[in-house]
Amino acid sequence: MQPKKSIFREYAEAILVAIVLALFIRTFVVQAFKIPSGSMKPTLLVGDHILVNKFIYGVKLPFIDRTLIPVTDPKRGDIVVFKFPEDPKKDFIKRVIGVSGDIVEVRNKKVYLNHKPMVDKHGAYLDPQVILGSAKPRDNFGPVTVPAGALFVMGDNRDHSYDSRFWGFVDLSMVKGEAFIIYWSWNKETSGVRWGRFGHVLH
Predict the structure, then answer these.
(1) What is the pLDDT of residues 165-203, one digit of tens each?
(2) Between the CA of residue 168 and those of 124, 125, 183, what are the distances in Å?
(3) Which residues are catalytic?
(4) Which CATH number describes the domain made up of 9-197?
(5) What is the pTM of this model?
């Protein structure tokens, strides 16, 4: 007959299992992120807390960003979280505009995809000024062809987003997952909860 486990050992084992399970879920399945800037307005607001599906684009080895089990690649329109190419320690969130082989161009704030005007239902333009491409790539950019294994991304807040127009493409290996739901939202300016944003599914 095996000796009965002590209460301390039972709790310790339960806590250890919970920690391992939580780390597994965070690493391979779902991770929480907080929105720190307004580059994705009006889709995402500063203070929104979102969940990101890390499994949808494949199972990756931690730290080396190597995909062990590929599932699918990001599609146009997906909202993705990725390691910022200029500083991989930072996470960015943007919307996929172009995938491998796509030709992306911006003319006077209008986005063109493969030489045709893109149906830009998510893009918000708050600044009426149009900036020449020779001065800044915000409103006039390209055309560029998205290389193999990469994405062209933009923030929904087109006039106030630091994205692929400025720093280039996102390698697929840098993509962490797809944002899919808002689970909490806090308005810092009013110190109030945005109850209406709870459970909002992102698309």
Answers:
(1) 999 999 998 999 999 999 999 998 888 999 999 999 998
(2) 21, 21, 31
(3) 39, 94
(4) 2.10.109.10
(5) 0.83
